């Protein structure tokens, strides 16, 4: 990476400076660059910035970017009265519109002496941003200059006007001082990454620098760099894996039902009863922390379903209005009312499942985590707790201390009740592939993509040694790889969601909270897809609708294709099924008891990963590492 080692004195990155230099009153500050450049009769005018951290009224009224002590400030919020310049003598003679610069742009271009006209609000020619598009739009010209007739009525500076100007300056002249500033911004990110690595966080600094160097050489600003965004997300996640601060432990945490959820309150009360009216008759979570205790959450994929680069130009998306080509309610119709531009942020950029605090590789055999008997704390509508003796409890890793003891009878009743409600959510969680993509070489399509894939490799004729993993910054970092061949599709969901939700011993409050969160995750992902493409589309090609949009009928619905492929909108894992019935029909035969057959009981490799951890309150959590036996 090349560039100067010290930043320039002007045009630094746009940040909120704090405005320490105040004069006269609370809203008047030391004058900005635009006010200092005003013509002599107004050079002592006050610089009024009513909102801290934002530009002055004068700069916005004449269309300039407010530059104060080297900081580009965002425009002052609200409306500002725009003034029109009085034409100079030359512009008045040819009956042409003038601008605020002195000499004006027409006189400067024709090399004439600019005199006459009022000097109010005028500034010396060469003031920053007097060649930017917003300056001309503010005067009533087109964006390209004083001779552009394509005016924009009622134009106003957008909130990111100062950032647009910074980007424009960079591309106008890459060799100017802003190149040094860009270098310093990227250097700051690299130093932050290096400092975190020295504290023990696993990172590959060389790979990170290579990616950052690529963005830097392309002139991508830090706030537009996908690599910088991924790094900050990763560093944030690593800082909360083993939290010491900002991880409060709550003895009682209410279960809330957000507005807009499709679940009925009476149904929620039946699934998770409580006599407490202050808690809306819903049993609360007990002895829980904000994040898992002593272990990270389950990681997501390299990229989630329907992910697009953060800086992607919306014009690059294959979206064309086609309502005139199809009858009403046809799956191929693009609903332009759902489209959003600029593109909204991805609702789950890390791809992390809502069930990520539930261990897939079990820590405890069927939740048996206590050395001594505890009384089951599952409550009823009458207010009485079960009270049966048990050594088993909720397996969610956010529990701390005594956790939440659950007996076998209460777990069986809870599992069956939630399974009946969960079945209705399954179709909503799936984003199906289209027929054309299903008929492709699916195994090759996902090789090296960093996704977790569930399929029968013998049925698909694939080699068991294929590598589906990929390096990523999102969630796990460059030094770890995510995505793998997971095995044959599991019951109900095909992915791991049903195993975590129903195959692990959970308390009723946790199950209800996760049921609501999975519903919201699917709703948000479907809304995001429609915001991008105007309809639900195949996760692979993102052009054609999935098979489910045709009710699995006809050629487009895959009636002639014995394969179903879909992605889970909660865990962002993919499932290949060579049994069409399994994609639309579900069996609860494996959910009749807490000791149900695999995959709902611990597998051998799960038993080998138990470790013994003693908590301060004396509760014993059983795990055992295979390496312990080797050490002995």
Give a short summary of the structure.
It contains 17 helices and 19 strands. The protein has helices spanning 33-36, 57-62, 89-93, 105-110, 133-139, 161-172, 177-198, 205-217, 226-239, 265-271, 408-423, 435-438, 442-446, 497-502, 508-533, 604-607, 626-631; strands spanning 28-29, 47-48, 66-68, 71-73, 101-102, 123-124, 249-253, 285-289, 374-375, 389-390, 430-432, 452-454, 470-471, 481-482, 484-487, 564-568, 574-577, 613-614, 620-621.
Give a verbal description of the structure:
- This protein has 632 residues and is α+β, with helices and mostly antiparallel strands.
- It has 3 domains: 1-171, no CATH class; 177-239; 249-430 and 497-607, no CATH class.
- Helices cover 26% and strands 9% of the residues.
- The chain contains 17 helices and 19 strands.
- Strands 11-16-17-12-15 form a 5-stranded mixed sheet, with no helix packed on it. The chain has a two-stranded antiparallel sheet with strand order 1-2.
- A hairpin with a 5-residue loop joins strand 16 and strand 17.
- Helix 7 (177-198) runs antiparallel to helix 8.
- It is elongated, with a radius of gyration of 31 Å.
